[in-house]
Each structure stands twice: as C-alpha cells, then as structure tokens.
Amino acid sequence: MRKKKKNDTNFAQHLAKLADLYVNDAFSCSHRSHASVSKITEFLPSFAGLQLETEISALKKVTSEIKKPITCIIGGSKISTKIGIIKNLISKFDNIIIVGGMANNIIQYKGNQIGKSIKEENCDLMIKEIFETLENHPCKIVFPEDVSIGKNLDDEPQIKELYNIKHDDIILDIGPKTLNKIKNIIENSETVLWNGPAGYFENPNFANGSYEIAKTISKKNKNNSIYSVVGGGDTIALINKIKLTEDFNFISTAGGAFLEYLEGKELPGIKALN
Q: Engineered SS bond to 8: which of 3, 36, 120, 233, CB 3.0-4.6 Å?
C-alpha cells in the first residue's frame, strides 16, 4: 500500500505486467499521485474511461467552456476548505453566493453579531483576500442579509435581520430576502455550480433555503434554460431527499478531486493521461 501511495516506479511496472492497457475511469481518485493512478501510465497505453470523460466534460462547462451568466453557490462549515475555489472562480464567474456555516464568518467580518452560530476561527485574512480579489473583477459576491435562527438545532425557526441577532441565537438557514435574491440570480443565470447546502437541512425547519434553491434550479433545468453541476455529499443528500437528482445536468460524487479541479489544480491522474 505504501508503494502504491508513493507513486513507486517498481510497483507501477509490476502492475503494468498484469495488463495490456490502462483505463482510468475513477475521477474521484485522479487527484492522488499513486502508482495505480499516475505512474502506471508510463508503462502501458493509457486512456480515459467514459465516466471520467463525462465528469471532465461537465466540469469544463463551469471552469473553461462557460456559458454566461454563471453563478456559483458555495456552502459548508469551513471557509478555509473553499478559499482556493472562491479565489479561482472570481475571475470566471458573474456571481458567487456564499451560504451555510461559512457565511457566518463573512457576516461577522462585516461587523454583525452571529450569536452561538458555527464559525471557523482565524479566517479574517482569508475573507480579506476574497474581497481584495473581487476589487479587480466584475464578479459579485452575495451573502445572507437576513437569516433563520433557533436557540438550538431542534428549535422552531425565527426570521431575523442581521442587526437583530442575539448572543444566544444560532443561524441555521438563510432568510426570505436572501432566498429571493438568490432565486433571482439563478433565474438570470445560464450556468450554475452548487456545492454546499444553505443551512442545517437535517432539521426540516431549516431546510427551506436549500430546498428552494434546488427547486429553482430544477425548474430551469426542465425547460433547458440552465446547465447545472452539483457536488458535495451534503448537497447530493439534500437533492436525493427531495427526489430531484434527475433535474440536474451533472452530479459529481468525486469529493476531493472535484474541489481540487475547481481550485484550478492540475490533477495527477489527468496530467498522466494528457
């Protein structure tokens, strides 16, 4: 296993003796510099599989072969895991919408209280970098202007403006003003990339923002007026829950490879085939 993970030449040669050609059909592993993903291509005629080609083709439509206007909806709990994606996409996208737990860091950075809401520590420099990068591009950044809060994860929702958040409030979803703004942006987009739900959708009381985003994209997909790419385990679980998986053009289950591709990184498994 260690030789496989170290991209060991001898191990790759040993693997190559077992086959006449090599086909990589695992995009989800293509960000790894492993002997069975990268080094083996030096010893066998090597090709991309059909699924890998489908994945790359979909991701090109949100990174290089873009039909504009294009919007990215990005969520999750940690802004540090998505900072590379945001900075890379600012130069290519028309709108970047930040929701979920990571939006709390921006809300606080802008001088608002977030109560007991989830946040990541030591992120002000990252957020500053985002806004500095935006100064050189026409891309617009959108983050919540009103929210749905609870006192705990099982609570009933209350809609609040940002200035009205108390010390014991937990932000668990976007509010109606924010949702309407996001829906309008989607309506005026021809391409959308979505990674990360808008709130704590595990409690149906705080799933409205995520559900409505999914339904808005789904509706546009049905009349072929948008190209949609979705990635991330929570987002996929969300659209599975409301049975809308057939209403998106492409759903990526690749995880790390998906995120690294969106950051603009060259994936070892793809580089080896090229």
A: 3
Q: Which residue segment(s) compose the domain that 242 sits in?
A: 66-255
CA 238 to chain centre: 13
Looking at the fold, whether 43 and 139 belong to one and the same domain comes out as no
- Does any domain span residue 77? yes
Q: Are residues 132 and 171 in the same domain?
A: yes
Q: Quick check: 89 and 210 in contact, CB under 8 A?
A: no
Q: What is the pLDDT of residues 176-212, one digit of tens each?
A: 999 999 999 999 999 999 999 999 999 999 999 999 9
Lowest mean per-residue pLDDT among 95-99, 211-215, 256-260: 256-260
Claim to verify: residue 42 and residue 70 sit in the same structural domain: no
Same domain, 188 and 225: yes
Please give the pLDDT value at position 5: 54
Amino acid at 212: E
Cβ atoms 143, 103 nearer than 8 A: yes
